[in-house]
Amino acid sequence: MQESRTRNFIGNAREALDDGNLQQALDKMKSGFVERRLEARARLPEFDDIRDQAREIKNHTLANLDYYLERFERKVTEEGGQVHWCATPEDARQAILKICRDLDAKTVTKGKSMIGEEIGLNDFFEENGIEPIETDLGEYIIQLRREAPSHIIAPAIHVLKHQVAEAFYETHDQFDPDRPLEEPRALLDEAREVLRQKFIDADVGITGANFLIAETGTSVIVTNEGNGDLTQTIPKAHVVIASLEKVVPTLEDATTISRVLARSATGQEYSVYTTFSTGPRRPEDPDGPEQYHVILLDNGRSKMVGSEYQEMLRCIRCGACLNHCPVYGSIGGHAYGWVYPGPMGSVLTPSLIGVDEAGHLPNASSFCGRCEEVCPMRIPLPKMMRHLREREFDGKTGPATMRTGIKMWAFYAKRPWLYHALAKLKFRVLGAFGRRKGRFRRLPGGAGWTAHRDFPAPQAGGTFQAQWSARGGKRSVDA
Amino acid sequence: MSESRPHVGLFVTCLVDLFRPSVGFAAVALLERAGCNVAVPAAQTCCGQPAFNSGDRADARAIAAQVIEAFDGFDYIVAPSGSCSGMLSKHYPELFADDPAMRARAEAFAARTHELISFLVDIRGMDAVEAHYDGRVAYHDSCSSLREMKVRAQPRALLDTVAGLAREELAFSETCCGFGGTFCVKYPDISNKMVGDKCDDIAATGADTVLAGDMGCLMNIAGKLKRRGSAIQARHVAEVLAGMTDTPAIGEPEG
Ligand code: SF4
């Protein structure tokens, strides 16, 4: 499994905030995704109704998950393919390795897949002498830079154009070192030229899946570059890597959910390519792989079924919650320290790798609620982050000072008379020191605030409650 | 009790109580002008959000039960804050999910709870105020006002009836200011980036005053503006709508 750097979230975030290139890249994505989603939404009046339908489809599927997964497997088998049930990342890696070894594979092409990241597939291939080649442009760029994706649909969103050119100059030594690479077009053409031969040479092609359709045994990918199609049709074997919650009952269901997927993700009505794969090549097919495998990964998800976190399994990885998140927008994806960043990661990561490891993520949210507002699957992300905080609080795994602080505060908040007496006292103390200037530049114990902001002092005249009493203001309906 | 003069219990909020009582008095004045009988139950402290959002459900429940009890008998519960009214109306019921009797009470309580400005406009039909304010103002939407309490048009409509006031729209008006309760002290660097961006957007409008309906955002924004040495003033929107702006703005010295 990919190693986590989540414990060091605060340090990661600090680094991200100090990284000028990253900040420039994040600044650029501030409005594009948001505006395009709004426009796409405005063009489809029934958008919100389809969101409700999409939610119901997934709820129904999750309530009958075993049934639909078995049905999916049966259909895949009938079509001549094979499903590999993998409980852990290690199971998945071994199953993939066996397929590759049996074909004596030297190179493997890969379409974009977050499950590939989750099981650390590229490193594993290299350790085993197999060359993995990412064929999605964004993924290819970060593979050259030896980085992880920083966004679930735009893996290289943190990379500026000149950094892409640098990576190309460094690694593509077959070309003239003085060639111009300022234009995006030039970068694209060069990547295409490099990748073309790789597509043809690959022994195995690996893709992810946006949907697995139970009634037909079909896997579906949604892409914009067409790389996925070449990845899966040219090599001898097509291996689909997918987590089990990707299953939907019918073709109709997959198309319903697709209607909100691209609109939420990039603001497109549909992605450029929506590709359906059912089994290996049939005798009458002009092309296609000889083998078709589906690696079905659990990795902790079946434990989420029936728990407070079940709703997270509705996620279709559209990335809208990342695109609208002010925390993601401030620090980018790498700071989150594991595969899944942004609000969906703040729920999924602790559910998969534990609150002990990823406790920061559900805490690092201002609960602004925008993720839930834009999520096409209506996943109550803030509510689930709060559940995770509760688990941390009850399990006493969070920072002890925070717990004690909240407990002390609550002691007073539950005793109004004591609370008001203390408020008066605080008012006097804060007022006496701060009123002349109107604010504090430093406060004992308040460094978290005053490192970056002044702290406004209370107004003159006493607390509201004290003033209200002094005026003899009404205290109840009849008095 | 007469239908035409409803009894409103003011939920003061802990920040208004401690830092800016003038907002409480502005709220009372506006509610009275809107034809309400206003009272302020003494047995209120805070809405319980610090506990609720820190994962301390037991204390959040105890505080919620206390608030519901304190406001028994009022026709409406009104708070000069989207965040606190959101806690009262959206989250109290879910705190009692496993206690049907309390849940029913919490739901009835939630249905009577409103954010101040939307209450004035949507429930009391206020469409204009008699107030004067010389200034260019930018109104900041707090996340909970905007998303939980559906407050967006109401404060803008009333502000547009204030004599002498010119209103500017903020770019990225739906983006959080970075306060987030305990978030701003637990993750100060991230919060600072967020409030810094917000202050840039405020400055870019050319406004001399920023208004909002939540003291949390306002203390955060005012604190950042003052740290930067900005002359932009921050006030609660109720102060301007009530015409009660003779007090120094948030974070400004007395007299
Ligand atoms: S949580 Fe919702 S918004 Fe975020 S990626 Fe998943 S489906 Fe999209």
What are the main properties of this structure?
heterodimer; A: 479 residues; alpha/beta; Rossmann fold; 2 domains; 4-stranded mixed sheet; 24 helices; B: 255 residues; 4-stranded parallel sheet; 13 helices; 48% helix; 15% strand; binds iron/sulfur cluster
Concise summary:
The complex is a heterodimer of chains A (about 475) and B (about 260). Chain A has about 475 residues and is an alpha/beta fold. Helices cover about 50% and strands about 10% of the residues of chain A.
Structure description:
The complex is a heterodimer of chains A (479) and B (255). Chain A is α/β, with parallel strands linked by helices and 479 residues long. Chain A is 51% helix and 11% strand. With 255 residues, chain B is an alpha/beta fold. Chain B has two domains: 7-122, Rossmann fold, CATH 3.40.50; 127-241, Rossmann fold (3-Layer(aba) Sandwich), CATH 3.40.50.11810. In chain B, helix 5 (82-95) runs antiparallel to helix 6. Chain B is globular. The termini of chain B are far apart. The model of chain B has no long low-confidence stretch (mean pLDDT 96). The chains are: A alpha/beta (479), B alpha/beta (255). Iron/sulfur cluster binds at residues 315-321, 344, 375-377, 379 of chain A.
* Mean pLDDT over the residues of chain A: 94
How far is the first residue's CA from the last residue's CA of chain A? 66 Å
Report the span from N to C terminus of chain B. Answer: 42 Å
How much helix is in the residues of chain A? Answer: 40-55%
Biggest interface, chains and residues, is: A-B, 77 and 82 residues
Rg estimate of chain B, integer Å: 18 Å
Order of helices and strands of chain B: EHHEHHEHHEHEHHEHHEHEH
Average predicted confidence as pLDDT of chain B: 96
In terms of structural class, how would the helical and strand content of chain A be classed?
A: alpha/beta
Shape of chain B: globular
The 3D shape of chain A can be described as globular
CATH architecture designation of the largest domain in chain B: 3-Layer(aba) Sandwich
